[in-house]
Amino acid sequence: MQTSGPNMPAKTERLRGPAALKTCVDLQQRILGDRARTVWDVAALTAVCQSGGLVLGVQHPEGSGPRLRGAIVDLVASIDRYPARHTVFRAVLPSERNHGIGYGLRVSERRICQQDDVDLVFWSLDPLRSDEAYLAFGKLGAVATGYRQELYGEIHDSRNLGLPTDRLHVEWWIDSPRVSSILDRGNPPPYFKLGVHEMNVLTKTCLASSGIRRLVGYDDAPRAEHVLVEIPVDLDKVRDTDLAIAREWRSTGRQVFELLFERGYVGVGFVHEGGRSFHLFHKTDRRAALRDC
């Protein structure tokens, strides 16, 4: 199993006031496109701040390009009466990825939530985006507990155009044994103890004539304790090269993810092996997964 070392957290700050919040609007437009209708504008971000939510940003060094490198927006929420935050936007400029910015945003978010006695941060994650899955499961210790078809309906922006907006429901219990082991004690995620031979690959893929890997089938009777579900290494590349193949990944992948949750699996990890990317699911319940360290 190939892994990479942890990145140092990037320096973050809370964004308040029209000028600071405008930098978050500009970042969204750079990532989603100038015509995107899903951008949180200054008025909406001001309401988030005034209602107890959180807007965090990572600044560029003075005078070196666009002002924000990445940002995160959280609403106040609750799940099962636990105080929570709901991340409705988190993104890093493509040119700034793999520099610890997304990780730094989450670490700062966790510290603020601990100060505010918040137990949980949750968000919706595109299951076909390997970079987001790696951060959530491989570096933060989050778990996936459900799947939702077409959560947002049709979205016309550069990250979602042409694909149904299916999402995994991700829960990050910030002081659970699982998370504390990874973030406070520097231990690897618990699934690192497993060998790849202990994980059963459910999905069947092949290379198309374009050189893009496509999802062609899956085992609909999972029995192993740990199973792998392949996803594209780079969803945007697949979509830009062959939209039909990207849609196959969405429609067939949907069936696999829903089957696993119906059979009592929890998403607990991310594996990148041999130039291919996989979600890791464990047949267990949420409480047991959160205790696993």
Question: Mind explaining what this structure looks like?
Answer:
- There is one protein chain.
- The protein is an alpha+beta fold.
- Helices cover 31% and strands 29% of the residues.
- It has helices at residues 17-32, 42-50, 101-115, 130-139, 177-183, 235-241, 243-262, 286-291, and strands spanning 13-14, 54-59, 68-79, 82-92, 120-125, 143-148, 167-173, 200-201, 203-207, 213-218, 226-231, 265-273, 276-283.
- It has a seven-stranded mixed beta sheet, sandwiched between helices. A four-stranded mixed beta sheet has the order 8-11-13-12.
- The radius of gyration is 19 Å and the shape is globular.
Can you describe this structure in just a few lines?
The chain is 31% helix and 29% strand. The protein has 8 helices and 13 strands.
What is the strand tally? 13
Radius of gyration: 19 Å
Number of helices: 8
Mean pLDDT: 92
Q: Which percent band covers the strand fraction?
A: 25-35%
Helix coverage percent: 25-40%
**Low-pLDDT runs:** 1-8
Secondary structure class reads alpha+beta
List the helices and strands and how they pair.
Layout: E1 13-14, H1 17-32, H2 42-50, E2 54-59, E3 68-79, E4 82-92, H3 101-115, E5 120-125, H4 130-139, E6 143-148, E7 167-173, H5 177-183, E8 200-201, E9 203-207, E10 213-218, E11 226-231, H6 235-241, H7 243-262, E12 265-273, E13 276-283, H8 286-291
Helix pairs in contact: 1-2, 6-7
